[in-house]
User: Fold this.
Amino acid sequence: MKKLILLLVFIAFAFYYLFSSEIINSIERINQIGSYLSLDELEGRFIGSDGNFKAGEFIIDHFKKIGLKPLNNSYKNEFQYSAGLTLDPSSFVSFKYTVQKPGLPPEMWKTLDRKWNAGTDWLPVGFSSDGEVTGPLVFVGYGVTAKEINYDDYEGIDVKGKIVMVLVDSAEHLPKQERFIPYSTRRYKAQNAKEHGAAAIIFIKTQSDSANVFEPINRDPNKNLGIIAIQANRTQIATFFPKNLNLYPVEMEMNQTKKPKSFEIPYTTITINVKTNIIEKTVFNVVGYVPGTDPIKANEYLVVGAHFDHIGWGEINSKYKGRQKMIHNGADDNASGVAGLIELAAKIAENPLKRPVVFVAFNGEEVGQVGSQNFIQNTPIPSDKFIFMMNFDMIGRLKDNKINIFGYATAHNFPEMIDSLAVLDTIQVLKSADGYGPSDHSTFYVKNIPVLFLFTGVHLDYHTPSDDWDKINIPGILKVIRFSESILRSIGNAENKPIFRKVLEDKGASYQPTDRGYAKVWFGIIPAFEDNEFGLKVNGLTPGSPAEKSGIKAEDILTAINSDIIKNLSDFNSALKKYSPGDEVDVSLLRGGKKINIKLTLSSR
Assistant:
């Protein structure tokens, strides 16, 4: 009997040791992968950059190390990406202006032509439309329309069909007028010019040592403003200002009086012709797979994905407000997801499922899911053979044991399966039925493939240089992966494949902060993403935001904005699209079960 007890104790200790070793190995692997992908050396992994290629090769090495097989004899699923722009030689900027001669009648004044040199006198900006326009030249100060500070550079001046000139902040210092910080982006100024009817916009830097230095014409993936936009050499453009309204004195007067001073440049017309050519680069997704063990289910593929690109030095969609460029390392977005992807792949490779599983580290998610779209269009596996897709994006901030899952209603058996597995795994699931959202699972959902998208919530480091690996909850990632593995094994070993279900209300909900690609106003909440029968729950608030200033608190539930009923994030975003900065809205909410009404003044981003 003693021998039996000792044997059982020995076995128990052996299992404990093995189990502990497995956890330690998993944590070490997650830390190694995520910390490398978050290094400054990779410069934010922007698609097509050197750091992006290094990240891809690093992931390939790990796919090989854990035993994933290449798909179609390669770990690279290559595609073409439009990585930049060059200015076509046919582009030009020319002026026709009249030299005034005091004492002589206007008909005797001389009309001259001048042509600018591209690269030294002017360059387009990345979001400029191609095309040609001709019109009078109008100076409109900072190009700002801001009702909340009672300021409008366009007040009292007609710019329809004209070319406007606006001041933009120089690189080495903060805006000279701090109140204009929310209106400082070039995209805002261009959009505002377009809304006032301008045919084109010319950006002029404020006075500084870098006033004649151009921003590179990187391609803007959101090149959809519909207005020609160029940047001008300040010294050159200043020569067209009249003597009594020279550029620098006008700029100083505006700064001192804090009032607009807009005017048309007399006797001057400008023609702008912009034609850009796209620079194509060959980039790749990283793909590996684990074959299934059941030959009958060999053509029923499961896909697990996580994007490995990020936004580099803040090329697009950065929330960083500083003037000095900084690397955005993207530890949570999405080094955490890639580390989780590889950890899950290692577990499946050790113990395969009946069905084959394809693991994909997607590229180009940050510029519009271009990698996942390419994969589903150009993979050797027909898309109708994919029966399920699981996506990891931002899984590094697990808090209070709560995980968000989108898509739980995209297959008939998902709700019951997720609920039962969550109980076994002692994890709290915040559920959203919708299969849409700006991440790679959407690419599969629109092909009628059931999806589950896992993430651990938004935070104030999102798309900023402060999203670093030292803030990541590594045991939390492991917990997410263990729960994901139980889901994957349930689907991968089930007798029947999941049956796709189109969610009746396609909410288009987003897991991103609400100011990504939606309304032009700033509200400032961090939303909860689980479905709520009463409205949209507030998880947190952005410091200094209109929501915080108005007295909205975490745990409040938004139910209406003016007459618009708010039931979910899609309703919230749709309601905000109706408003402009400076508009006051009535916000209805529930706080501790009690109805409260709050007045809130919306501001600009």
